[in-house]
Amino acid sequence: MNRIDASFVRLRRKNAKALIVYLTVGFPSVSLLPDLVKVLVDEGVDLIELGVPFSDPLADGPTIQAASSWALRKGVTPRLVLKLVSQLRRAGQDVPIALMTYYNPVFRYGLRNFCRDASAGGVDGLIVPDLPPEEAEDLLHASRPVELDTIFLAAPTSPPDRLKKIARISKGFIYYVNLTGVTGARDSFQYHLAPVKHLKRITNLPVCAGFGISTPHQVSTVLEASGVDGVIIGSALLDAIGRARGNPIKAAADFIRPMRRACHG
Q1: Contacts with 92 (C-beta within 8 Å, 6 or more apart), sequence order
Q2: Domain limits of the chain?
């Protein structure tokens, strides 16, 4: 059982939901990544997505686009991201880690080499939002031998046949996109329940909801309305870190604490 599976088993035993957060590697600086991860884990985060900066993040809104541009200017590369994950593991950090990237950096690195190096360095899962499940065979062949989970996205517009395909090839959990559009904090959004209910009927994999979640009230609403197994928070956390004046670590802790209460009770 890998770290992602073990985390969801532990949460189910406690009748709790997963709190997953996203960080762009290199924002606000590479040197702060270990402290940001530590404080988030100390505050109760169950899984961390580390974003590999990319110049054309088509699934991401203004916040993550800006964070990625910042990180790229600071010289963050896929190799550096893998090195940083390895350093986190050697320092004793055991939180489940999934990389969120785009297909181009993985392809340029080499699918088998990327999956091998990611797994060897302590990465547990891989999320590639611009890779459709119908074209994922090469990545699956590269990831399965090294036990790297492939986490695919399901959307409100996904028809039943595609949901079935997503459920069949996903490992770790299924990432349910709350809305049509890109990432980013929202004051409000309309939640679409039908795809989640369908996924729950056809798979035992956890389903976690992301895109647009930015307040404790939204966390509670999504969990109560949908029956998902966890929530994913990204842009709102990065906004809080970006607004911090002099202490982004404290800002991250202060932001995530009420989210954790809404998620874990």
Answers
A1: none
A2: 3-264
**Which amino acid appears at position 45 of this protein?**
V
Bridge partners, 125 (sequence order): 98, 149
Instruction: Identify the active-site residue in 46, 49, 229, 239.
Output: 49
Look up 56 and say whether it is catalytic: no
Looking at the structure, give the CATH architecture of the domain made up of residues 3-264: Alpha-Beta Barrel (3.20)
Q: pLDDT tens digits, residue range 160-200? A: 999 999 999 999 999 999 765 444 344 555 566 678 889 99
User: For 204-226, what is each residue's pLDDT tens digit?
Assistant: 999 999 887 889 999 998 888 77
Known catalytic residue: 224? no
Burial of 21 (0-12, 13-18, 19+ CB in 10 A): buried
Q: What are phi and psi of 172, to 5 degrees?
A: 90, -75
Question: Can you count the helices (H) and strands (E) in the chain?
Answer: 12, 9
H or E element that contains 173: none
Which of 5, 35, 43, 60 is catalytic? The answer is: 60
**Please, which residues have CB within 8 angstroms of residue 13's CB and are 6 or more apart in sequence?**
none
Q: What is the spatial distance between Cα 121 and Cα 139, in angstroms, rounded to a whole number? A: 18
